[in-house]
Specification:
Transmembrane segments: 7-29, 41-58, 79-100, 120-143
Keywords: Membrane, Transmembrane, Transmembrane helix
Mean pLDDT: 79
Number of helices: 5
Number of strands: 0
Strand content: under 5%
Shape: elongated
Structural class: mainly alpha
Distance between the termini: 41 Å
Length: 167
């Protein structure tokens, strides 16, 4: 049951991130009429990958609802698995980008960031990192269940062959 609730929370967080960056894309490209450059690529990537990640969570939520993983086909979602990994990598790159931006902003100045600025810095960096770790652990859990299911099916097939031979 915890996995199902965790999957719903992760879906909501992913949808929130995708929506936030979709709004950022709208603001940057429609309202501000800015062109695409390296600094503007993160909102595009996070909006697209976040949306696909949300769909991935909707498609894989049923893997948490059932007690048995029988008759669940993991292989239909390979593209979604890959794009969800791309979303994780993009979140980590976003955190690295923010670290770089903060370090260049305060490069020549004495280090006297105010508490509010320091708190904002950690929130902006920690949120993408924590969400990406959570997403990675979710993918790892699903992949391990897939391997466990494949091993179980092979052992069941061997048991069926042995059972029919002994009859």
């Amino acid at each position: 049951m915890f996995g199902f609730v965790q999957k719903i929370i992760l879906s909501i967080i992913t949808l929130g991130i995708a929506g936030l960056f979709l709004f950022a894309c709208y603001f940057l490209f429609i309202e501000e009429s800015r062109g695409v450059n390296f600094n503007n690529i993160f909102p595009i990537l996070l909006a697209v990958f976040g949306s696909v990640s949300f769909v991935f969570h909707l498609k894989t939520i049923r893997f948490y609802k059932t007690q048995s993983l029988q008759n669940l086909n993991f292989d239909n979602h390979k593209v979604f698995w890959g794009l969800n990994l791309a979303f994780i990598i993009t979140l980590v790159l976003l955190a690295i980008f923010f670290i770089y931006q903060f370090s260049t902003m305060y490069a020549g100045q004495p280090y006297n960031m105010e508490e509010d600025m320091l708190l904002g810095f950690f929130i902006v960096i920690l949120v993408p990192v924590l969400v990406s770790v959570w997403l990675f652990l979710d993918i790892r859990f699903l992949y391990r269940n897939k391997l466990r299911l494949e091993r179980k099916e092979k052992l069941d097939a061997i048991d069926n062959i042995k059972g029919t031979r002994n009859s």
